[in-house]
Amino acid sequence: MKQNDKYYVGHRGSRGVGVENTIEAFLEGIRRSYQALECDVRVSKDLQFIIFHDPDLKRLALRDEIVENMTLEELKSIVLTQKIGERVLSGKIPTLQEYLELCKKYQVTPLIELKWSTGINNNDCTNVDKLIKLIEEHDALDQAIILTSMTNVLQYLRNYYPNLQLQLLLGASQPLNNTNLEFAFYNNISLDLHYSLVTQEIINLAHQNNVLVNCWSVNDEGLAQKFAKMGIDMITTDDLR
Question: Whole-model pTM?
Answer without folding.
Answer: 0.96
